[in-house]
Amino acid sequence: MKVSYSSLEAFKNCPQKYKFSEIEKIKEPKTREAVFGSYIHEILHWFYENDPDFPTLEELLDHYKENWPKPDEFGWKNNKDAENYLNEGIRQLESFYTANTPLQSVILELEKHFILDFDVNGEKHHLSGIIDRVDSLGNNRYEIIDYKTGKRVPSQKDTDKDLQLSIYALGLLNFWPKLEPKNIDLSLYFLKPGLKVTSKRTASHLEKTKQEIKEGILNILKSDFTPTPSKLCDWCGYRRRCPVWHDYYVQTNLTGRKVSLLVDEYFSLQKKNYQLNQRLKEIKEQINEYCKKNNIAQISGKTGTLKKVSGKRITYNINQIIETLGPLNRLEQVLMVNQKVMEEVLQELPDSFKKIILAARKEEDLDSLN
Question: Which CATH number applies to 2-224: 1.10.730, 3.90.1530, 3.90.320, 2.40.128?
């Protein structure tokens, strides 16, 4: 199986999204923010591949404007929207150029592809990635730089735990295994605010990263890809295909609107039913208490009569039942396990007993409204 940082993150956020993208190979529609980000990456790659004869700022901006993607690639809301993005790119590139020229390091790699191999349960799996840029800082020190065009700048704490940077470090060490992790700077360069956040990894941290990747692969292998709704759904390109959001989009036609009204009516009646049952319980308790106190076996109103019903609650000794009916193969007919109670009991059992109970459990798929 082939994975990447983005596919591992997609699975972690929502297994259904991973399935759409990596298994069913359905391309996710790109947002204009994503297209804009990809284009800025292309422009910076063009700028640095001219090393050492770097273009001037004017040449950089001319190249940016001349190769501006076609309108249908972006999906602009209107002409003003297109103009805003064009100007934002100019602003970001001007700021980047001012802050980073002349270059203080030596560029070693641009868009460096790498593949990492992982053995999971005896099977080979591969993680691939692309590092935007690798620089030599001198004195046997190196820097990995990943460009970001998003608004959010993570804290130092989050950057120190960033899985993508850890994977990039593993990718570089895969090419140059004699490098020391402590000599590699891992940087996220945020173009919008013009900020660079830098982190490092230890050998111990990278070993944990390898384990995290293996666990991610294992989780994918055993997944049923059930969707996990969250606030990220608002930005997901697969939302119209997702079973979680199906009813939301069905409501745009007449049938959907009618079903939506039925759902509202269902919950309204359910609420009323609960309130009615609560009130019936209260009334019944008051009448029953009155009848007991006055030794009354029957009491009437204008619309009906309530009679005292006497009976006994019967219970059985479960051990004797098992001993008696077990040999006769009749036990299953009278013994029913309460699933909720069983789950609570399982939490308290030793692992050896828990395995026996779990091995005896049968599962079947049930589809119902709740």
Answer: 3.90.320
